[in-house]
From TrEMBL:
GO molecular function, one term: serine-type endopeptidase activity
Domain Peptidase S1: 3-233
SMART domains registered for this protein in UniProt: Tryp_SPc
Taxonomic placement: Eukaryota, Metazoa, Ecdysozoa, Arthropoda, Hexapoda
InterPro entries: Trypsin_dom, TRYPSIN_HIS, TRYPSIN_SER
Protein name in the entry: Peptidase S1 domain-containing protein
PANTHER family xrefs: TRANSMEMBRANE PROTEASE SERINE, TRANSMEMBRANE PROTEASE SERINE 7
Keyword Ribonucleoprotein: no
Amino acid sequence: MRIVGGRRAEPHSFPWTVAILKNERMHCGGAVVTNKHVLSAGHCFKWDDFKSMKVLIGLDNLDDLSNVEKRTISNVVIHEDFTSTAVRDENDIAIATLNHPVTFGDTIVPICLPLPGEDFADRVGTIAGWGRMGVEKSSSRVLLKASLRILSDEKCMQSQLAQHLKPTMMCAFSKGKDGCQGDSGGPLIVFQPAGKYVQAGIVSWGIGCADPRYPGVYTKVSNYIDWIMQHLKGGEMCN
């Protein structure tokens, strides 16, 4: 996953998490936000042709695709202010439209969106994905998960990433755990007291993997609610 130090997720316990493959290889993660839209990172599509990608929905094990919905992508909208430097991506958010809607059920459920401006400082978030299990390691065949503490903006600015950070980004860290290449675009989710999961962040960038000096950096979803809603034309959402 971008998941270093993660553990096996109970199959289908994150039914919104999707795998985006490019030429049959793990490329990025994403989250189902409506029955025809996936929320992911801008950098997952900026330099790659989405026509060469396939989305696996309701997936647990990459070696068993028997009950998995497979879709191609008919359109991608990357945030118009997306920019990239050697170190970081800014406004790193994109919405992919599936070629054909999916039907919600036990293994496919949309993730809920946070309130505009909602702050998740000091909450525990969870990432899940099939990305690499370490800087030099291969990607995972089964869904892995890791719990991370979301840092306040102040704490985030005390890390060695400070000069690269923007208010539209958030940091999360737990000792020995992180996202790694291949979980890019996947959701960082938080369980709300009301009993539902919401997507607080999108796996965006980091330096190395699970390095204590450099927490993982996520796109702050609550900053982009208006933008997201504008691009979800139709589609059934989480209620």
